[in-house]
């Protein structure tokens, strides 16, 4: 195989070779060279009028020369890039020809300044202005090709947008607060597409000739026709592509972008089964219990979601007295009053009174760190009343299975640390009572490896950290 083959043939018809694509992808980097050289040349042409800089006059053609050569390379690589992508044809046409114009104008500048040609009527300033104008306009169109034509002015004030013939900024759709008001396309399907697909499937960059920015465009389909078949996910190309193995060539999204979550896939599948409605309330389309729950959770509306509730400002007297007992309190969120209470750094003894006081903040405290605090089994009765706890650290304390029995009410608990404690088989009883538990720390406890193996088998989603004592 000779070099020419390597460059031009990929073996696959109609697809440029990998090497050309590789060069093409350097285009966005290379384009900055002519911009730099040519703007510098312009600047130097301006300043050589001053006596101080006059000696530079005889060298400016070098800058024009460099600018022109690099513009040629940028045009060439840009051409390679255009072979590989589906770009908006109209924008691409003008971007390409203006790029060639930059090259030609700068080449003319090179000869004019090298040979010191005389130009009639303001010839030189006009020529230089043309170079500068074409550089900026080519760059602008290039930006549109990669980011979409709305990118530059997306966040511009409406006055500026209107000047450019664009409508006012879209008012974002209000967040759904009750499931009954969720629109099937606007609140479920469209946000998924916006987040995961439209960066490649929009009006300017229509990969596979598919535009996913609106229902109407989605319905138009892509280069292979319709992408969703009403009522039949399994023959819908869109569904097929999001459910393929991630390594498959056809998998969407491509280029290693994060795949859709299982919930998102389930929502899209359901939507196709329901004949791809363009609008209408989700709850009025007869979703079954499972689907309702899934969507409710997906939209963050589930009532059980502790963190979506607003809690009150903590009582100042309670806070002060906890601080005096040696607790450190941290607010965990900017817009809510959930707290972390930490006793692990205190030098005082933890006593009953302090734990009783803690109860005064039972709505607010979601993280509690009592590691190495001298806490005993009997104290856990009070800890077990703090029903909003999500994270509980009881490590390095002399507690045992008897104490654990008090924790079964902690229905929000996601993480419990029992490092260096005396707990053992009591866990087998506790864990099924904690439906949200995701992490369990057991190193250097009295639990044996057989019990851990059993738990791991029974609760595959529970992450257990367990290292036996050496
Ligand atoms: C990183 C860019 C990129 C992203 C993100 C992306 N796609 Fe694509 N998509 C492509 C390319 C490139 C093609 C054309 C090549 C092909 O057919 O595999 C394509 C083609 C398709 C096609 C086939 C169109 C046809 O008729 O041939 C479908 C359907 C599709 N994409 C769906 C999606 C969906 C759904 C998402 C979001 C989950 C998505 N894509 C995200 C790049 C992307």
UniProtKB/TrEMBL annotation:
Keyword Metal-binding: no
Domain Cytochrome C Planctomycete-type: 197-253
GO terms assigned for molecular function: electron transfer activity; heme binding
Swiss-Prot/TrEMBL keywords: Membrane, Transmembrane, Transmembrane helix
Domain DUF2231, residue spans: 26-146
Transmembrane segments: 29-48, 60-81, 93-113, 125-143
Keyword Transport applies: no
Name recorded for this polypeptide: Uncharacterized membrane protein
Lineage, opening ranks: Bacteria, Pseudomonadati, Bacteroidota, Flavobacteriia, Flavobacteriales
């Amino acid at each position: 195989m000779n070099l020419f083959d390597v460059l031009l043939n990929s073996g696959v018809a109609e697809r440029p070779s990998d090497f050309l694509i590789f060069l093409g992808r350097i285009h966005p980097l290379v384009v900055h060279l002519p911009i730099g050289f040519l703007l510098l040349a312009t600047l130097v042409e301006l300043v050589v009028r001053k006596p101080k800089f006059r000696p530079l006059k005889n060298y400016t053609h070098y800058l024009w020369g460099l600018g022109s050569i690099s513009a040629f390379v940028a045009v060439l690589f840009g051409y390679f890039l255009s072979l590989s992508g589906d770009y908006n044809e109209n924008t691409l046409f003008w971007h390409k020809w203006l790029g060639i114009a930059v090259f030609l104008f700068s080449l003319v500048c090179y000869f004019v300044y090298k040979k010191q040609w005389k130009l009639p009527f303001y010839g030189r300033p006009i020529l230089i202005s043309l170079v500068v104008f074409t550089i900026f306009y080519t760059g602008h169109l290039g930006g549109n090709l990669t980011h979409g034509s709305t990118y530059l002015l997306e966040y511009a004030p409406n006055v500026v947008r209107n000047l450019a013939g664009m409508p006012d900024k879209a008012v974002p759709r209000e967040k759904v607060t009750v499931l009954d008001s969720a629109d099937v396309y606007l609140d479920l399907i469209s946000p998924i597409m916006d987040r995961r697909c439209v960066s490649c499937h929009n009006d300017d960059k229509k990969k596979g000739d598919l535009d996913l920015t609106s229902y109407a465009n989605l319905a138009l389909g892509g280069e292979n026709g319709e992408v969703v078949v009403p009522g039949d996910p399994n023959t819908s190309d869109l569904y097929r592509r999001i459910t393929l193995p991630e390594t498959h060539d056809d998998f969407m999204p491509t280029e290693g972008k994060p795949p859709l979550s299982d919930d998102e896939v389930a929502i899209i599948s359901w939507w196709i089964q329901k004949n791809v409605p363009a609008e209408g309330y989700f709850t009025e389309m007869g979703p079954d219990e499972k689907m309702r729950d899934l969507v409710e959770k997906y939209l963050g509306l589930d009532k059980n979601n502790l963190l979506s509730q607003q809690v009150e400002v903590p009582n100042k007297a309670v806070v002060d007295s906890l601080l005096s007992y040696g607790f450190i309190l941290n607010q965990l969120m900017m817009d809510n009053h959930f707290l972390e209470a930490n006793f692990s750094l205190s030098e005082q003894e933890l006593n009953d009174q302090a734990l009783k006081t803690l109860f005064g903040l039972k709505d607010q405290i979601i993280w509690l760190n009592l590691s190495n605090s001298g806490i005993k089994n009997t104290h856990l009765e009070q800890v077990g009343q703090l029903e909003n706890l999500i994270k509980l650290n009881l490590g390095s304390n002399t507690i045992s299975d008897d104490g654990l029995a008090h924790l079964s009410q902690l229905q929000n608990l996601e993480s419990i640390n029992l490092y260096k404690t005396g707990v053992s088989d009591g866990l087998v009883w506790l864990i099924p009572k904690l439906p949200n538990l995701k992490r369990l720390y057991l190193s250097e406890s009295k639990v044996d490896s057989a019990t851990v193996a059993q738990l791991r088998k029974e609760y595959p989603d529970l992450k257990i950290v367990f290292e036996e004592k050496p």
